[in-house]
Design goal:
Strand content: 5-15%
GO molecular function, one term: glutamine synthetase activity
Largest sheet: 9 strands, mixed
CATH class of the largest domain: Alpha Beta
Family: Belongs to the glutamine synthetase family.
Bound molecules: adenosine-5'-diphosphate, magnesium ion
CATH superfamily of the largest domain: Glutamine synthetase/guanido kinase, catalytic domain
Oligomer: single chain
Structural class: alpha+beta
CATH topology of the largest domain: Creatine Kinase, Chain A, domain 2
CATH architecture of the largest domain: 2-Layer Sandwich
Protein name: Glutamine synthetase
């Protein structure tokens, strides 16, 4: 009965690290399979090259005839590198990437064939789109959706396919993917931030959002993973007793990387180099078999693409190493889960990081402007930020007694707190020359140029300032970064637009000097956004109480959190910035609610199946062994048998009790599912799954885990936590 488990263990123990050869320097292989600037110079006409560059810098549309030139150049390059197919590579709302390969190959009659790839095929493709989630945007009358080339993210070759990063929109142009709203948000933050940056430097003409994500993940041997139906189907364990040793000793974090894992990482990094994904850091994470990988930050759209691509590549490379990657936010109860910290900043085309303090008071005022505006944006939109990282799997992290809480707050460190406290005292109205000198010398001037090494770290904050960037730490490890990046950049854009308006009004109406106006507006922002700043322990209970007093949201479940995504405030924000229209917003909301309900439904079925098909039969089997034993004792000792079988009888009873609880729990859970499934309204159904179905998970699991401890290890069918986490 437990044969799969033992077979899997044997297989795992016999594995050897895959040998990895690296003959070339990484700097040489970097970007080899990317249609980047230097390749474009080589394969494109001057005119075609310039039009891609212009599209990149100013978003200028690429002319159709030019597109023909570009596609020809791209095809020549791709074929020379062994590619046979091309695909529009896009990110539908399923959460993974999508591709439909077409061959370059085409027949031209007379039994002849050529390789062809026209501008039309580069610019647009029409995947059979009806099976992607669309939240009712595409009704049957206009079932078509199409993908369109995003020239701001370079094409690349993966395997033998030329991949063209694309957006995915409905026939009417409504967004059906993650990238479209992201590009719109990035454009609005560019405009808004450029206008504000011009207060400090007239030469700025473009501001880019930058993103450096950190991807956490678990690696489990593929044989062990296959021995567990829950890992196979849900990507996490739905039951399993805690091992005697977990992560208490902190002996995994930053420890030496296990050799099989190191081979995997090197292989993965090789692929990343070819694809131009600038991965830099790798290490063991806190939990056993948990690891992390981080790249050098990039322009946000490219970084988002690279993270989506990486997750796909991670899965594929894992196959070669007999590993399964668990991206789930909480694959194992009782030990740390995984996140995907999003490090974010804004940077100008003059080479300035706007969230980095400078060497002069003016540079520091620029820093403070962007710093305080970001905090204000987070303050005003904390509930929407929380909503943007909501998912059934991230609910296990946020607010679940670990990792960032479901409360959004910013941490800025004691030094900057002091600076903001001082700025709060700035005079209302025009500043006297004395006060200005004073501020410049003693407040703004005191911000050290390199804060990076001076900032305190607070690992319990959901949105921490870390010296020259903010780190949105609450993002889940399975998330597509596009979502949090869309919202973050949009709220900052909106905030900067408002800021500029207020400053300009003070300059015009109150005849203030620019500096005075900026100080005045910032002072009010500091006061108004005080409540979002928290320097203490974000995991503590005290903070939950304090946050409630401050009126901050604490939405612990996805259905609850998602409400903020369709509030009037959100809709007017997105519509004002042209990031998403009402139809797109409501469609997405519907998709997310449906996805949530399906997620819990699937987990609930898996748990029911495992408990009934694996756990209960095993328990009965063991109980029968005990019964036989008791009978034997009775044969030998007659009426005196109870003296010698007291413990066995107790275990027999305990087993019956656990079986009873498990079985009735499953029956009730199925009833709750039936009720939930009958609800037409997606939100009501999501709440029903959350409030009425999910609570059974814990009780069913509790009794299964108790049985795991009682039953003979030899017949227990499910690979145990100890084995999943410590076998390599
Ligand atoms: P840690 O936060 O683990 O101490 P680092 O501060 O070195 O590590 O950086 C973590 C991540 O932040 C990296 O992926 C890095 O590329 C990214 N990062 C650094 N600077 C910026 C920036 N200006 N904008 C966006 N991301 C950045
Ligand atoms: Mg970090």
């Amino acid at each position: 009965m437990a044969t799969i488990r033992f077979q899997a263990l044997r297989e795992t123990l016999n594995r050897k690290p895959v040998e990895i050869h690296e003959d070339e320097r990484r700097s040489e292989t970097f970007g080899r399979n990317v249609f980047n600037t230097s390749v474009m110079r080589q394969f494109l006409t001057k005119e075609a090259y310039q039009s891609v560059v212009d599209a990149n810098i100013s978003g200028k549309k690429i002319d159709r005839t030019i597109a023909d030139h570009i596609s020809t150049g791209m095809k020549e390059w791709a074929i020379a590198k062994g590619a046979t197919h091309y695909t529009h590579w896009f990110q539908p709302l399923t959460g993974s990437t999508a591709e439909k390969h077409d061959a370059f190959f085409e027949t031209i009659g007379d039994g002849l064939a050529i390789e062809k790839f026209g501008g039309g095929a580069l610019v647009q493709q029409e995947p059979d789109a009806s099976s992607f989630p669309n939240g009712g945007i595409r009704n049957t009358f206009e079932a078509r959706g199409y993908t369109a080339w995003d020239p701001t993210s370079p094409a690349f070759i993966y395997g033998t396919t030329l991949c063209i990063p694309s957006v995915f929109v409905s026939y009417k142009g409504d967004a059906l993917d993650y990238k479209t709203p992201l590009l719109r948000a990035l454009q609005s933050v560019d405009h808004a931030a450029t206008a504000v940056a011009k207060y400090f430097d007239k030469n700025v003409t473009k501001v880019q959002a930058t993103l450096g994500w950190e991807q956490e993940y678990f690696l489990i041997d593929s044989a062990l993973a296959a021995s567990r139906p829950d890992i196979q189907l849900a990507g996490r364990t739905l039951l399993g007793h805690s091992p005697a040793k977990g992560q208490q000793l902190d002996d995994h974090y930053f420890g030496s990387i296990p050799s099989r894992v190191l081979s995997y990482m090197r292989d993965l990094e090789k692929e990343c180099m070819l694809l131009g994904v600038p991965v830099k850091t790798r290490h063991n994470e806190v939990a056993p078999n948990q690891f992390e990988l981080a790249p050098i930050f990039e322009e946000a759209n490219l970084a988002v693409d690279h993270n989506s691509l990486l997750m796909d590549v991670m899965n594929r490379v894992a196959e070669r190493h007999n590993f399964v990657v668990l991206f789930h936010e909480k694959p194992f109860a009782g030990i740390n889960g995984s996140g995907k910290h999003n490090n974010w900043s804004l940077s100008t085309d003059t080479g300035t990081n706007l969230l980095s303090p400078g060497s002069t008071p003016m540079k520091n005022l620029q820093f403070l402007t962007f710093f305080i505006n970001t905090i204000k944006a987070v303050h005003d939109n904390e509930e929407l930020l929380r909503a943007t990282i909501a998912s059934a799997s991230n609910d296990h992290r946020l607010g679940a007694n670990e990792a960032p809480p479901a409360i959004i707050s910013t941490f800025i460190g004691s030094q900057l707190t002091e600076v903001l406290d001082e700025l709060e005292k700035v005079t209302d109205g025009k500043l006297s020359p004395q006060e200005k000198t004073d501020i410049k010398l003693n407040v703004v001037g005191k911000i050290p140029e390199i804060l990076l090494d001076n900032t305190d770290r607070n690992r319990t904050s959901s949105f921490a300032f870390t010296g020259n960037k903010f780190e949105f730490r609450a993002v889940g490890s399975t998330a597509n970064c596009a979502q949090p990046m869309t919202v973050l950049n949009a709220i900052v854009a909106k905030q900067l637009i408002d800021f500029k308006k207020e400053v300009d009004e003070l300059i015009k109406n109150d005849k203030m000097k620019k500096d005075d106006a900026i100080f005045n507006v910032l002072r009010e922002y500091i006061k108004k956004s005080r409540d979002i700043r928290f320097e203490g322990d974000g995991y503590g209970e005290a903070w939950e109480k304090e946050a409630e007093k401050r009126g901050l949201s604490n939405n612990k479940t996805t259905p609850q959190a998602l409400k903020a995504k369709i509030s009037d405030k959100t809709i007017s924000l997105f519509e004002e910035l042209a990031v998403m229209n009402r139809v797109e917003i409501e469609a997405r909301h519907e998709i997310e609610l449906e996805e949530y309900a399906m997620h819990i439904q699937i987990e609930s079925r898996i748990l029911g199946d495992i408990a009934r098909n694996h756990v209960i039969p095993t328990a009965i089997r063991y109980q029968n062994i005990l019964i036989k034993n008791v009978r034997g004792l009775k044969d030998i000792y007659g009426d005196n048998f109870k003296t010698y079988s007291k413990e066995q009888l107790q275990i027999i009873e305990d087993i019956s009790l656990h079986i009873e609880k498990i079985n009735s729990g499953i029956t009730d859970m199925i009833e709750a599912r039936k009720v939930a499934n009958k609800l037409e309204d997606a939100e009501k159904r999501a709440f029903a799954y959350c409030d009425d179905v999910k609570p059974y998970f814990d009780t069913i699991r509790y009794h299964c885990d108790k049985l795991e401890l009682l039953i003979d290890d030899e017949i227990w069918p499910l690979t145990k936590y100890r084995e999943l986490l410590f076998t390599r």
